[in-house]
Amino acid sequence: MPQRPLAVVTGASSGIGFELARCCAEHDMDLVVAADLPEIEQAAHELRSTGVEVTPLKVDLALTDGVDRLCETIGGLNRPVDCLLANAGQGLGHAFLDQDFEAARKVVDTNITGTIYLIHRIGREMRIRGEGRILITGSIAGFTPGSFQAVYNGTKAFIDSFSFALREELKDSGVTVTCLMPGATDTEFFDRAEMADTAVAQGKKDDPAFVARVGFDAMMDGEGDVIAGWKNKLMSAMANITPAGMLAGQHRKMTEPGSGQK
Asked: What's in the keyword line of the UniProt record (predicted)?
């Protein structure tokens, strides 16, 4: 019996990451799932109900050592990674100068440093084999100066740009790179980012299962980028023609602490 493909999904304990892992499992892929929360064990238990093999790992991917641990776990399976879904990410609300800097730096280390280090390690192996799929979770937030979410939006601007550049570099290599760019999604993101009292947190949000399906299908089709939902597509199009200062002001209305109570 042929071996199933292997997918690695980060940030898979809940939300978009868990739903991406579910998409992989439903397409008969074995999984390595990682997150920095103990809930990754329960997520793995649920995913096993589809009949695939699931290896969970609780690890902090903001740390270089954490990425190394994940790669060691993958290496121990002695199997190539067919799909890498680099979804781990953190947000942080409030004005930048009011934030704890260590918390802000962890956002950068999780969203950027850990993400690109993992892609560097696994992507090299894919390029040597001449095959593989990489899905990177960016965000439409990367198109907008993020008042009261400045570090997060800045990291997503980096990730969105990085994804397009990497895709071009890997053109004709057999390795595809897809950037999933969600908008506000109904996950634990806003609570973890201390943004529960903001207008964006209290507004209508997308279903993470829908977002994941859009991203997964785009990855399997080898598309370069995909924005989930027509409203988010419209917002990203408007961001391309709206002055940055105006965008920052509009963002403030959605993310300033207490904006959900005005």
From this structure: Oxidoreductase
